[in-house]
């Protein structure tokens, strides 16, 4: 039986790849579907390559099951990202018709990559961790393991060398500032943010030196390497939403969280930022600990000072839009932000960046992007410098 060969080739067998082919026989209209996380029903993330395009022709890629995704309302106002070289990414006009998301590409080259957001590759992660360890004052403090055995490096940045010559002196009195990222594997903007942290530390400007004179930074650049590599949206390889595991972490089901909590217990925490991405809200914002049992005017003032300062430092942050505040005593303590804020009675925030754009300062060509996430990181470090003296 003759098999009709479509001139178009679709594949996703690579780092963070996720797509299923419904019907690729019509190059002008390719029908696709989103694949759920390995052991959970969550799906929204996509990343695939299309080859055999005709430059100058419009190719429509339809995600037929978009309305059944984890956040179906998030497709309204969303535009996919595309790249011809996997270096520079741009937004492609996309529209959601209530059932499918239609991505319309006017091809300029014979092959293109399309994704939900600018992917952060594992190879780039490995280079980042390697580079970080070459920066004076940054050390690999410990390394955890994901379910599938991928490294989860914990870096510590500190200006100062302890008596026995080890960087990252962790000296008493220095504040311990923790930043973790990408508990939710599809939120690739989170590791772009962490690359921005490392870049700024490498610049070692006066503000960085001032910050590290009074604080050590504890950095986990990717909390969920399995999920990221497998093209998951929300869960690890055991189907666990890591940001719901902070009251029940286990080596078997959520070793990633178990590792982070063990290290926090060992070193202490004076401030915590959990870096995420949000599918629906087209703004950069924070969520905090207003629903925690131990919430206090001190913590409320620190949260407000963080938000006010960051607003002053960058147009890529705002505090009008965000999640509904938790009622007093009603926080979900399984979330990292709430669990850490309660356990250490410290400033603790979830930082959210959009999969869409930051509508207060839109960039129609890129939307929110890796570069903007990196730039935001610099402003966050300056914000931490501004309030470190008040943390305790
Ligand atoms: C969010 S954090 C949800 C916080 N909600 C409130 N009201 N504070 C999650 O885990 O669902 C973070 C994310 O997914 O990006
Ligand atoms: Zn998240």
Bulk shape: globular
Give the biggest sheet: 7 strands, mixed
Category by helix and strand content: alpha+beta
Small molecules bound in the structure, each named once: (2-guanidinoethylmercapto)succinic acid, zinc ion
Report the C-alpha radius of gyration, rounded. Answer: 21 Å
Count every helix, treating DSSP H or I runs of 4 or more residues as helices. 8
Task: Assign a percent range to the helix content.
Answer: 25-40%
CATH class of the largest domain: Alpha Beta
What does this structure look like?
This protein has helices spanning 122-133, 189-203, 206-214, 225-230, 255-267, 297-313, 336-344, 370-387, and strands spanning 9-11, 20-23, 29-33, 47-51, 58-63, 80-83, 90-92, 94-96, 101-106, 111-115, 138-145, 151-157, 175-181, 215-220, 271-278, 285-287, 347-354. The protein is an alpha+beta fold. Strand 2 (20-23) and strand 3 form a beta hairpin. Helix 6 crosses helix 8. The termini are far apart. The model has no long low-confidence stretch (mean pLDDT 96). The structure holds (2-guanidinoethylmercapto)succinic acid and zinc ion (ZN). Residues 184, 187, 243, 276 line the site of zinc ion.
Kindly summarize this structure in a few lines.
The protein has 392 residues and is an alpha+beta fold. Helix content is 25%, strand content 23%. It is built from 8 helices and 17 strands.
Break the fold down into its secondary structure elements and pairings:
Elements lengths: L8 E3 L8 E4 L5 E5 L13 E5 L6 E6 L16 E4 L6 E3 L1 E3 L4 E6 L4 E5 L6 H12 L4 E8 L5 E7 L17 E7 L7 H15 L2 H9 E6 L4 H6 L24 H13 L3 E8 L6 E3 L9 H17 L22 H9 L2 E8 L15 H18 L5
Parallel strand pairs: 3-5, 13-14, 13-15, 15-17
Antiparallel strand pairs: 1-4, 2-3, 4-10, 5-9, 6-7, 6-10, 8-9, 11-12, 12-14, 16-17
Helix pairs in contact: 2-8, 3-8, 6-8
The chain binds (2-guanidinoethylmercapto)succinic acid (GEM) and zinc ion.
(2-guanidinoethylmercapto)succinic acid binds next to strand 15 and strand 17.
């Amino acid at each position: 039986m003759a098999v009709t060969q479509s001139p178009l080739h679709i594949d996703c067998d690579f780092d963070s790849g996720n797509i299923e082919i419904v019907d690729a026989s019509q190059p002008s209209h390719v029908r696709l579907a989103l694949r759920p996380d390995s052991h959970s029903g969550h799906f929204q993330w996509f990343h695939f390559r299309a080859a055999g395009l005709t430059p100058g022709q419009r190719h429509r890629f339809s995600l037929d099951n978009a309305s059944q995704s984890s956040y179906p309302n998030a497709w309204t106002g969303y535009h996919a990202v595309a790249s011809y070289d996997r270096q520079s990414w741009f937004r492609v006009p996309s529209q959601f018709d209530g059932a499918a998301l239609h991505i319309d590409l006017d091809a300029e080259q014979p092959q293109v990559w399309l994704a939900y957001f600018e992917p952060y590759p594992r190879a780039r992660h490995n280079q980042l961790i390697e580079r970080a360890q070459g920066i004076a004052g940054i050390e690999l403090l410990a390394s955890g393991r994901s379910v599938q055995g991928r490294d989860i490096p914990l870096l510590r940045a500190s200006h100062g060398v302890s008596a026995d010559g080890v960087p990252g002196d962790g000296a008493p009195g220095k504040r311990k500032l923790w930043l973790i990222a990408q508990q939710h594997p599809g939120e690739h903007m989170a590791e772009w943010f962490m690359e921005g942290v490392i870049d700024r530390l490498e610049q070692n400007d006066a503000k960085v030196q001032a910050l590290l004179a009074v604080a050590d930074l504890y950095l986990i650049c990717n909390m969920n390497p399995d999920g990221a590599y497998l093209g998951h949206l929300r869960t690890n390889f055991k189907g666990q939403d890591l940001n719901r595991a902070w009251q029940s972490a286990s080596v078997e089901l959520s070793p990633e969280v178990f590792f982070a909590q063990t290290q926090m217990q060992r070193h202490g925490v004076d401030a915590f930022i959990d870096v995420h991405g949000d599918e629906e809200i087209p703004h950069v914002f924070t969520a905090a600990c207003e629903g925690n049992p131990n919430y206090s005017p001190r913590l409320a003032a620190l949260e407000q000072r963080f938000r006010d300062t960051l607003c002053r430092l960058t147009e890529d942050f705002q505090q009008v839009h965000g999640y509904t505040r938790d009622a007093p005593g009603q926080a979900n303590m399984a979330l990292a932000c709430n669990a850490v804020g309660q356990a250490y009675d410290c400033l603790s925030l979830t930082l959210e960046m959009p999969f869409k754009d930051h509508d207060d300062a839109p960039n129609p060509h890129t939307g929110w992007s890796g570069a903007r996430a990196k730039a935001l990181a610099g402003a966050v470090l300056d914000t931490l410098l501004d309030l470190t003296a008040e943390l305790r």
